[in-house]
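Entry:
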Amino acid sequence: MVDAALVAGRRAPPLKGRFNAVGALARVLAGSGLRAEPINRGFVVRPQVGAEAERSLDTDIVVTGSRIRGAPVASTLIVRTADTIRNEGQATLADVIRTIPQNFGGGQNPGIGANVPAASGVNVGSGSSLNLRGLGSDATLTLLNGRRLAYSASRQSVDVSAIPVNAVERIEIVADGASALYGSDAIAGVANIRLRRDAQGLTTSARLGASTDGGNVEQVYGVVAGKRWSGGGMLLAYEFGHSTAIRAGDRDYARDRVTGLDLYPSLRRHSVVLSGHQQLADTLELSLDLLYNNRRSFSQFPLSAAGVTPFRHAEQPSESDSAAIAPALRWSPGAWRFELAGSAGRDRVHYATNQFTGTQLTSRTFGCYCNDAHSVELAADGPLFALPGGPAKIALGVGYRDNRLVSQRGDNSAQNVDAHQDSRYAYAEASLPLIGPAQAVPLVHRLDASLALRHEDYPGIDAVTTPKLGLVYAPSPDVSLKASWGLSFRAPTLLQRYQPLVVAALPATVFGGTGLPSGATALLLSGGRDTLQPERARSWSMTLALHPRAVDGLSIEISYFETLYRDRIVAPVTFIARALADPAYADQVLRSPSLATLESLRLGAGQFLNATGRTYDPRSVVAVIDNANRNAGRQRVRGLDMLARLDRNLGAGQINATLSGAYLQSDQQLTPAQPVVDLAGTIFNPPHFRGRATLGWTQSGLTLTGAVSRIGGVEDRRTSPARRVGGMTQADLTLRYRTGPGPTWWHGVDLAVTAQNILNAKPSPIATTLPYDTPYDSTNYSPFGRVLAILASKSW
């Protein structure tokens, strides 16, 4: 089934030889910007979306990075399609994002160890979130079909592993500031997970695999059912996944750890997606997306050193439950399109830490991060007037959004939070094709400009206006130069604002105080601050894109990017033991506080802790150390991205090769009085370099794909002298076979065998101090080792 508009003006190479349907279509469509998707007993031809296919996109497609259909994007677009995911043997979206060079494994992810600083990573509920450029999982906006989802856990990020991979059409990522288009959180960039629009028939699938060193025994079972009819269609996808924990004793580099340490938790999940659309009239369409996910995880770690009796350990069970609904009504009179869309979502992460002495439960901490989100938006886009290069187009929209967080820690805990924040916004974007090929201007094949502006009002916080400018200049059909500049922001999280203030009284000597009277006390403040303002960033990038006609199917993009991130919300005192001794913390220390100030702090605290070892006496307090959240931090990131792709015929088959990489430099200054410190290239932060190369060959339904990924090394500056931690190079190999027409029992079969990390590369060890410390940098390197898996699916 082919839309005539897609193939108009295209030419296909001659087809000679013996091919099945899959191989023949792959050869005919090579380099065309089109792909064939199997449906029941036939195929449907659709546009590709990727760096090499941007030039041939259908004008009715909205690509992430713009809200205008068919508009060119001035930033590099990173794409992972469902076919790519399958060819590379990845089981979940968490596996997919680990292969993206611009993504950092810190933030919210299930493999984060206990020795990772909270600013670099955390694991609550075992969700997986994108963390572009290492700016934080709360600084990357993740969308589902262009809609926001409820935040997960405490980090104001979205759990991509909640979305079943068998329902995903593709993932589009723009690693560039995008608040002018999408609002808060899009500082490092935006990711849009696009679901399959519909399906025809029934497809069942199964995956079985395990790590050869032990643990990570995985099972994934899926069902996709769909139906198309005149004017509409629907898809229902279900996926069950289970994987066992990875124990420290299963890995030779972690075997010296105390018994009972899990390097990666066990996971069990159920995910469901329902997506449907129906044309109500010639120009009116209704669509609906539903998502539900339930995940349970379990991990444990020791509390005692080896040989200590009785042995003490802790267990951490968690359960995550999330759901979302997103209806939309689209009216398309002529070239314009109007859309009224809404979404509602919830995410519940119930967690617990149970401590045991021997087999006896001695203490239990439990709680929930319960997030809710609601939004409604009215949007329109269409042409305005003619320009030399084509029609000028505009997109307009207004909307309302509300987020709520209920953070419960035990029963009636002083640390509980119940807060919400709403916002109202309006945006406009224009795409201006200033010059086109028809003008025959020397050295100007095309010149396109884009402008976007968004105003967002957060009552009680601030109103923020963010612009973005883009320019795409093509001196010839073979070369394009892209440039973008824009401002972005991130609103403070509800936890950062409303986490109750904790006031702790401790001996002043704990903070490095000297020459003080006997019994001198200092107060340490920590927690939220309701006067926090939005974090702000300025980003710009320049891209050279090569797509030479002389080399069919080749595209290369090289980008320089820079982001200056200011007013970061931080706890400014990083070394508590030197708070009273280091002049860098002078702005955070109030010396000789008045009794009235001390009484006000005590009464206003959500929790007052006296750890002096004696009755609290305000007259003995010599200083107040303010380590509560504040807008003070500054980060700067800059570097290079490279993305190359080659798709072309080779003999009777087709080759597909990609080469992608990211070089990153970043630094941070917590307050103006503190020094600037390096982030990139240091432990628990992104390495300077990450890269991935793939090479695939397809012929007659058979696809062989190899991949090599490199994660650079880092420097461990926790010790003196600093120690170099080696990087990891991983090689993967996947063999896939899809059957063509034949008997019912054989038609629609898709088989694959994959070996991930086939050479069994291992993370380099790092220094540890506590029995539950993970003995490697768990933000960058994986404990999975070699993973072997088989995959099978059948369309009925």
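The chain is about 5% helix and 50% strand.
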